[in-house]
Amino acid sequence: MDILDQVMKVIIKVDRNYGKKIAKEGPAPEIAPAECNAITGEGYRVGYSKAEIMPEFESGRDFWIAGHGSGHKMDGIISPVYVSAVWVDCGNDEGMIWLNADIIGMTRIEINKIRSMIMASDIIKGCKLINFSVTHSHSGIDTLGYWGKPFASIPADGKDPAYMEMLMNKSLKVAEEAYLNRKKGKLYNGRILIKDGLTTRRGFTDKHEYLTRLRFAPDDNSNEIWIMNFGGHPNSLGGANRKLSGEYPYFMRELITEKKGADVIFTIGAIGAMDCAHLSDDNLECVKLQGKMIAEASFEIENETELKPEIKYIQQPFYLNVDNYVLTLLAILKRMSFKAYPCKDSLTGIMMETELTYMIIGGQKFVLLPGESFVSTVYGSYMSAEVAPTEKSPEINPTPLCEICGDPDIIAVGNSNDMTGYVVPPNDFILNKTQPFLNGTKDKNGLNHYHETNSMGYETQRIIADTFKSVVERMK
């Protein structure tokens, strides 16, 4: 028997014992339905700020690259990385902060600490909503705890406490500066199809290759502020890379600022198993060309509509079953921030609290999701039973989110306010039979099912869809 089969048996036993221990602590607190809120006024005011979040290489501390294999020690810099923020209000005393960072992701526990810091600020007044999204750069620093030096395929914590503190402090700083920098202006919404801008190795029938943009034009003709979204992984520097980079979002933003004088926040879409187009065999050149491709596409957006000054939102916490034995072990070992609650329906006996946010800004719908959703879970086009690795009908899959809210043009923002792993449709979900969640497996079509190993489990999409349905009904 493979030694990793034996390791897996030990992990499962440890996790289930942990689940029994958590069950003795009593039932999980009930989560109440969040209220629908609105921010209205006579016209938009938006402010922007950004700050570098660079590691202190001169300190002699080790920094670990997040996003490919574990144990990749960083040894240099390709590009700087940033945290940025926009403040958005409708001309009155209430508004929202939207933060974005060039990192792989962060847990809701750390994000709630940042929220607490912002709400305690003596500078920011009337903040009603705080969102924290990421570019999901695979050449950033480990901010989760998955990517330190591994032992027996189990990663060590690669987070650096001083770096995490700096990231939180810089997040507060840019939030305050964005609030102070708010200006009156008009907000526009547009999108463009980037044909062949994405690629996948999971056989999707629809890649949803749309680049979307909110464009704020200040009345004083100062720098515009763009909030952009595209559904491709920033991962093309590859697993052999050992240098810090913001990957294609960095080069995209730089070109937009150079050519258009705009400040840019870039968010990822439904990026599960979805990569940007392969544009060069030289990885660095490929990343630069990806940034150029997306920037130049944004210059061609013509179908803009002006948005009315209104923001409606529901930010809903919910419990998510945790089936993933390996991630549970990392939580037990305190290699990432995690709070377990008892769950009778999960393989491990535990669940976690996460959240999603449904926003409508001037009529444009957004759903901010905690994980990396497969595109079909948001926009539809499921695999048929003949193609699916499970050979099961797409009817077993939940209703796609765009159908739940009745809008095929909803903008999905991934890895927002938490990072909970991949969201895979049930009829496309298979696990390694002897090493579930530890190693991937190949399906009948020869395709690698790595993504399930970094998912919370089979029920993830259903729970998210059910939560979203409840939120949409309350928004009405």
Question: What labels would you give this structure?
Answer:
single chain; 476 residues; alpha+beta; nine-stranded mixed β-sheet; six-stranded mixed β-sheet; 26% strand
Approximately how much helix is present in the residues? 10-25%
User: For this entry, what is the oligomeric state of its chains?
Assistant: single chain
Distance between the termini: 56 Å
Helix count, DSSP H or I runs of 4 or more residues: 9
Strand content: 25-35%
Structural class: alpha+beta
| Main beta sheet | 9 strands, mixed
Record field, number of beta strands: 23
Radius of gyration: 21 Å
Mean of pLDDT: 96
- Overall 3D geometry? globular
- Enumerate the spans where pLDDT stays under 50 for 5 or more consecutive residues: none
